[in-house]
Design goal:
GO molecular function, one term: channel activity
Number of domains: 1
CATH class: Mainly Alpha
Keywords: Membrane, Transmembrane, Transmembrane helix
Membrane topology: Multi-pass membrane protein
Strand content: under 5%
Largest sheet: none
Organism: Bos mutus grunniens
Helix content: over 70%
Number of helices: 7
Distance between the termini: 28 Å
Main location: membrane
Order of helices and strands: HHHHHHH
CATH superfamily: Glycerol uptake facilitator protein
């Protein structure tokens, strides 16, 4: 949880205005902060990045650089969803809704305080939903990390 907080804070300090979450892009489009064409390009870039990430990680693991990269483990994964699928979708949707609602409400808060508030919120959401769904609440990240797990289920 400490690393989640730390990386969320570093992301907030260094990557202001970027979005690696399709939900964030769609929120910007709906609020009029981005044109539909620009949003579509960003969504496509996120999809391509997620697919490239899946391919690159598989290729790196197949090299067997360490004892943890043996061939039996290359494509093995554990499905992070520990509840039935409808509950998992609801949990992820609620986490995403809470996070994006907080983004909207914290816009008026000073940047340095907002970063800590959002980092704490992300850490809480990961703690609250992590044992049930993996608490990704990011479809792009879920595709790049867990798609094979979901495909096997």
């Amino acid at each position: 949880l400490t690393l989640i907080y730390f990386f969320s804070m570093v992301h907030g300090l260094t990557l202001v205005g970027t979005s690696s979450n399709p939900c964030g892009v769609m929120m910007q489009i709906m609020l009029g902060g981005m044109s539909a064409e620009t949003g579509a390009i960003r969504l496509l870039a996120q999809l391509i990045g997620a697919l490239c990430s899946r391919y690159c990680m598989s290729a790196l693991w197949s090299l067997g650089l360490t004892k943890y990269h043996v061939s039996e483990r290359s494509f093995a994964c554990r499905n992070p969803i520990q509840v039935d699928l409808p509950k998992a979708v609801i949990i992820e949707a609620v986490c995403s809704f809470i996070f994006h609602s907080a983004l909207l409400h914290f816009q008026e808060v000073r940047t340095k305080l907002r970063i800590h508030l959002l980092s704490a919120l992300i850490t809480f959401l990961v703690y609250a939903g992590g044992s049930l769904t993996g608490a990704v609440f990011n479809p792009t990240l879920a595709l790049s990390l867990h798609f094979k797990c979901f495909d096997e289920a």
